[in-house]
Amino acid sequence: MRSRIMLSVTLCLFVLGATSAVAETVAGLPVHIDKINEKAIRVWIGDTISSTNTVAIATEEGLIIIDTLGLPEVDRELRAIIARELGRDDFKYLINTHEHGDHVGGNGIYADCTIVGHELVAASMTGRDEHRQGVVDWLTRRIAEQETELTQLESGSPEATRMQEDLAHNRLELTAAEANAKPFPPTKTFTDRMTLDCGDTTFELYYIGGMHSASDIAVWVPEHGLLMTGDTMADTWLTDTPGCLASFMARSGIPHDFPLWLENWNHLLAKKNEIELILPGHWNGELSYAGAEARVKYVETLWTATNKAYKSGEDMDYMLAEYQLASHFPELVDSPGFSARNNYSTVVEMWVECSGQESAARAIYALVDEGGEKSAVQNLVATHGTPSSPYYFSEGEFNALGYQFLQTDRADQAVVLFRINAKLYPESWNVYDSLGEGLLATGARDEAIAMYERSLELNPESPSGLDALERIRHEDSVN
């Protein structure tokens, strides 16, 4: 690994012959410059917030920028700092590692450049306005809360410093959201791979989407031994708030191409002896070669197993039971980005990709929510276990969606999903526990007791079942 120098840029003030160093700031936040080598730097803001890295590389063809911070007010200042540090201002390309606002929101500052990104970036950028008012409302509320919270913290304490930075960052985000600036999507796009020849420097772009956003790419610069991976993964967090690097998972609603993902990642990993530095998309995350390799192996293992299970006639519950994080990947349990929930989501998305099936739980939730015919629900449930079923069935999804009803004061609808779950998974203690809670919320006390008792027969140590029955008996004694 090449040695790197990290520094906070300082400005020296000379007053009456005395010298005092004052950290350079942008919008009240400290600016950091990491000198990767004589021709490459990265810049970010803040000491605690999860700021995006902006990487700048000088080439014969001009300056190449990878990602913006998504805050035009800040990106404008950072562009000037980059020009100053590299001693030139002939900006040529801006490369977006993916579609999210904290990477593309400053594209307008580089509108004089060719903006490069995956072909799916533009759709997300142009569709973002429908959520803008919600973002403005949330930031307005959060800023007011933080201003109050800050008055209750000791001035100069670590907690106050973190709060001040987060507050300053939220104010910048609010300003950007209220401005509603015209989006500047990539003007040069690709599907699988692309190479940019910049004379003495080559930029190889690889599509690795589906584990963070639809449009994730990796950027490999062989002349510098530098691999940039956007927000897809990290194996070290430098702060307690990893932000966008917090999860490594496939998500519902985000397109996947696992074979292409694996092909491109394995192509990159084959450059092991050439890679000198891997940079995630945010300064407070690091990624080692071993960390990247472990994550690619994890996806490869799950993808191979899912295909094999589907072709062998297994169902998704088999995959969920067989490939739990703790039992099958114990070495990843405490690794950044991994959790039982994230693993569950990835298994489900891979199953959907292999089988083409839809979620039975979501389909039934929609029918119940819309007041659909009982027969339609029964017909859908009847497809369970049939080879040609267009649906996959998941105990966890039925349970989670039942609680969505319950938490929005729709106990009758929740009971419908909980009853289906109990019918599908009669040996699971948890389905009866949830059904008991739902029935109790509808006032069906006696049946609720019966469900809790059945749950405890299957799991005598269930704290929720024991607590529920004790609470019911206490209420009976009082009344």
Q: Kindly name the structural category.
A: alpha/beta
Tally of separate helices:
17
Largest sheet: 9 strands, mixed
Gross CATH architecture of the largest domain? 4-Layer Sandwich
Q: State the domain count.
A: 3
At CATH level 3, the topology of the largest domain is Metallo-beta-lactamase, Chain A
How far the N terminus sits from the C terminus, by CA atoms, comes to 72 Å
* Strand residue percentage: 15-25%
CATH class of the largest domain reads: Alpha Beta
What would you report as the Rg, rounded to the nearest angstrom? 26 Å
Let me know the number of strands.
Answer: 20
Features:
20 strands, single chain, 479 residues, alpha/beta, 46% helix, Metallo-beta-lactamase, Chain A, Serine Threonine Protein Phosphatase 5, Tetratricopeptide repeat, 3 domains
Produce the secondary structure layout:
Elements: E1 5-8, E2 10-15, E3 18-23, E4 25-26, E5 29-37, E6 40-45, E7 54-59, E8 62-66, H1 72-86, E9 91-95, H2 101-104, E10 114-118, H3 121-126, H4 132-151, H5 158-179, E11 188-190, E12 193-197, E13 202-207, E14 217-221, E15 226-228, E16 236-237, H6 258-269, E17 277-279, E18 285-286, H7 289-311, H8 316-322, H9 325-328, H10 340-355, E19 358-359, H11 360-369, H12 374-381, E20 391-392, H13 395-407, H14 411-424, H15 429-442, H16 445-458, H17 463-478
Helix pairs in contact: 4-5, 6-7, 7-10, 11-12, 11-13, 13-14, 13-15, 14-15, 15-16, 16-17
